[in-house]
Amino acid sequence: MKKKTVAGQHLLLPNVFKKFHRRAFFARAVFTRLDRKKIILLNFIKNLIRFLPYVP
User: Fold this and answer.
1) Could you give the CA distance from residue 32 to residue 21 in angstroms, rounded to a whole number?
2) What's the rounded Cα separation, in Å, for the pair 26 and 22?
3) In Å, what is the CA distance from 45 to each residue of 34, 52, 53?
4) What angle do helix axes 21-51 and 2-19 make, rounded to 10 degrees?
5) Does the predicted TM-score (pTM) go above 0.85?
6) Which residues are CB-contacts of 8 (< 8 A; sequence separation ≥ 6)?
7) 7 pLDDT exceeds 60?
8) What is the end-to-end Cα distance of the chain in Å, rounded?
């Protein structure tokens, strides 16, 4: 089953990229920006949790 699904995905991927190339590129840029903000927030929260026990 896994081999069949992988082969099907490989066959479908080029068509999908041709159809939604511009949309995918735009969405990818937006998601990367969101991911950067999320990563910064996650690091900030991790630092807060790390230093919370030391705060009186």
Assistant:
1) 16
2) 6
3) 16, 10, 14
4) 110
5) no
6) none
7) no
8) 57
Instruction: Please report the pLDDT score of residue 34 as a whole number.
Output: 82
DSSP letters, 1-56, are -HHHHHHHHHHHHHHHHHHTHHHHHHHHHHHHHHHHHHHHHHHHHHHHHHHGGG--
Longest dimension (CA), the chain: 59
The label of the residue with tokens 């995905």 reads: 9
Cβ proximity of 16 and 9 under 8 Å:
no
pLDDT in tens, 17-52: 566 667 777 777 777 888 888 888 989 988 888 887
